[in-house]
Amino acid sequence: MTFILTNDDGIDAPGIAALREALTGHSTWVVAPDRHLSGCSHQMNRGGPIAIAQREEQAFAIGGTPADCARVGVSHLCPDATWVLSGINAGGNMGADIHVSGTVAAVREAALLRVPGIAISHYIQNRRPVDWALASRLTAQVLETLMAEALPPGCFWNVNLPHLQPGDPDPELVFCTTCTQPLPTEFKVEQGHFYYVGNYGQRRHDPDSDVAVCFGGNIAITKICLW
After folding, report:
1. Backbone angles phi, psi at 121, to 5 degrees
2. What is the pTM of this model?
3. What distances in angstroms separate CA 211 from CA 96, 141, 151, 152, 226, one per listed residue?
4. Which of 33, 107, 111, 152 is found 20 to 30 A from 226 (Cα to Cα)?
5. What secondary structure does DSSP assign to 93-152, as a single string?
6. pLDDT values of the chain reduced to their tens digit, one per residue, 227 residues
7. What distance lies between CA 7 and its chain's CA centroid?
């Protein structure tokens, strides 16, 4: 199998290096934004030039969004790709997050291009640092499981890793539904400016949804289908 790896944190982010490590022994092509673009959703270049800067033999920094990266990778740099993988994102992408996430947009674009994809994100609790070596090991387990699952055209997987404490046992892989609750909407208004002040870790969530599973310490896996 051949994998295109992308993200929305930028080609130099530790998460994409951890994703690459999880795929040691496989053919990987890194096709990622040349800058940090978290939260860019499914924005795309609408006709202007997209810069392609080669970093290594199979690694390219793209002057475009994650969705652009998926297109450039699938249509130009690696048209024989078996999968498009996006991540590992520094921060969760659960429930309503999937609509604003550039990480998820990359694999959504891949699904539109009829290439299966997996978005992988790591929930960050109370701004604690991420153990990227652990994230890489857990991701390798997830990928082994999902590669064996049938994925219909137009569908992709969205995966969220929990933020474990040192010494915690390995989490379970839980297939679940996408949370339907909104992101925190608490706010304050000061001097004519509106500020969101909600706590992501205290967001409302449906029982047994991806948010509940991930916040509960397990790996949340959802299948998202576009048609």
Report:
1. -130, 160
2. 0.96
3. 10, 20, 22, 24, 21
4. 33
5. --GGGGGT-HHHHHHHHHHHTT--EEEEEE--STTPPP-HHHHHHHHHHHHHHHHTS---
6. 999 999 999 999 999 999 999 999 999 999 999 999 999 999 999 889 999 999 999 999 999 999 999 999 999 999 999 999 999 999 999 999 999 999 999 999 999 999 999 999 999 999 999 999 999 999 999 999 999 999 999 999 999 999 999 889 999 999 999 999 999 999 999 999 999 999 999 999 999 999 999 999 999 999 999 99
7. 7
